[in-house]
Fold:
Amino acid sequence: MNALFALAAGLVFGIGLLVSGMADPAKVLGFLDVAGRWDPTLLVVMATAVPVAAIAHRIADRRKATFFGVAINLPQTRDIDRRLVAGAVVFGAGWGLVGLCPAPALLTVGAGRLPGIVFAIAMLAAMAAFEIIERMRAQRLPASATGVTAGDA
Structure:
């Protein structure tokens, strides 16, 4: 049953991306082109998504489980560290260069568009590289230094 609801949520999200035009890299790049032909569409999408997400997060903060009984595991740390900033910079640079982030990239893969396929391959390669680096890092440092406990691994 949970998988069915996850599928439904993913479909709604994907349809929202398509309807808003966010699966089109030109829309995102148009938003970032503040000195040229600026396209405010992404700003409108964000202005509607952020309050909805904030309300959902507030509700999730007060609950221990979803409406279907699945445990809610929200991040406990709110620290802004070097790794978080570096990840945000890499994500933002890729998004700004290509005009895609993971969800729209997967939509373009489904549509058979080459830029989305190349992006998805690069994303998967980066995810694999991250996992390899994290495993090597965890082997070099004690568990208390990595912030990872046996239950997290």
The mean pLDDT is 87. Residues 1-74 form one domain. The two ends are 26 Å apart (CA to CA). The CA atoms of residues 32 and 153 lie 38 Å apart.
